[in-house]
Amino acid sequence: MAILDIPSLVEGTRVQHELMVRTREDKQTKSGDPFVALQLGNASGTIGANIWKEQVAAMAGVKAGMVVQVIGTVEFYLGRRQIKVASPPRVVPSAAINLDDFLPRIRQSTESLWTQVDQWRGEMTSKTLRRAVDLFFADDEFRSRFERTPGAPRGHHALVGGLLLHVVEVASIARHSTETMGGDRDLVTAGALLHDIGKVETYSIGAAGFDYTQAGYLLQHIVLGSIMLDRRLRTLPPGTLTEVQELELHHFIQSHHGLPEHGAAVRPMTLEAELLHWADQSSANGNNFTDAVADTEMFPGDEEFSVKRYWRLDRKVWRRASGWT
């Protein structure tokens, strides 16, 4: 059976599909009756479902990360789509599922994204920068991990392949910015490719979706990125990069969040680092707006403005009714 296309569901749609339990919350109604609030999903998106008191006992042992057979009908409640289940979801044996069917993923081809990355690498005129970048992006094992890593566990680019897409967006924006503002295009490209390498060791992919690794919880991706860079720089013959060149590559990683209160160790101190920071912001917030407009909880009908503030932008979003002619 084809996977359920969650974004296209409309009120009254009959559902009889396998979905992964993203989250489970055991709650009580105002009258004290128990119920279970589920967030269900697959590679196309997520949708909620409530299991009421008569069926709560049948939910024993059902937890996040399990795949369940869901039978019910799509309905709207308080502006949100949810599945009104006809019977308690039945757990599907793990041996019978393909995890990739239930994880959200980018729609773009990873092959085309890698083609762009490799073209930029091939255009670098600085052999030193190319060697530093190739420490990661000429490594097949790293590339395999990088292309599956999400851009975040939840938030912008929280998809399998999200990190690769984000980095290509950042590099493209930063490269065009140097053409407008001046600066070293090879250098800003290197910074863009390297700035989020730490996310490979920060985020994990499991049955319940995306989460933090132990190292991710303890250090986060900026610190891990510099550790990873230093570790690989030490494999080069002494003197391949000068101490100042190594520091500048670390500066891209440590400053790309822009402000200390946003996680940066230091504010950008070069033109290229500043352009990288704003390219990173543009990619992240551009994705936030795109996702907000496509979110049926923000726009359950034909609304012009979102029915509430979008948490990733902390504001309401306008969905224009028509384009310009």
Give an account of the 3D structure.
- The protein has helices at 53-56, 110-123, 127-137, 140-148, 162-181, 185-194, 199-202, 214-233, 243-255, 271-294; strands at 14-28, 34-42, 45-51, 67-77, 80-85, 90-91, 203-206, 209-212.
- Helices cover 40% and strands 18% of the residues.
- The radius of gyration is 23 Å and the shape is elongated.
- It has two domains: 6-102, OB fold (Dihydrolipoamide Acetyltransferase, E2P), CATH 2.40.50; 110-289, Hypothetical protein af1432.
- It is α+β, with helices and mostly antiparallel strands and 325 residues long.
- A five-stranded mixed beta barrel has the order 1-2-3-5-4. The protein has a two-stranded antiparallel ribbon with strand order 7-8.
- Strand 7 and strand 8 form a beta hairpin.
Topology order in helix (H) and strand (E) letters: EEEHEEEHHHHHHEEHHH
Task: Report how far the terminal alpha carbons are from each other.
Answer: 42 Å
Question: Spans with pLDDT under 50 lasting ≥5 residues?
Answer: none
| Helical residue percent band | 25-40%
Helices, strands, pairings?
Blueprint: E1 14-28, E2 34-42, E3 45-51, H1 53-56, E4 67-77, E5 80-85, E6 90-91, H2 110-123, H3 127-137, H4 140-148, H5 162-181, H6 185-194, H7 199-202, E7 203-206, E8 209-212, H8 214-233, H9 243-255, H10 271-294
Parallel strand pairs: 3-5
Antiparallel strand pairs: 1-2, 1-4, 2-3, 4-5, 4-6, 7-8
Helix pairs in contact: 2-3, 2-6, 3-6, 5-6, 5-10, 6-10, 8-9
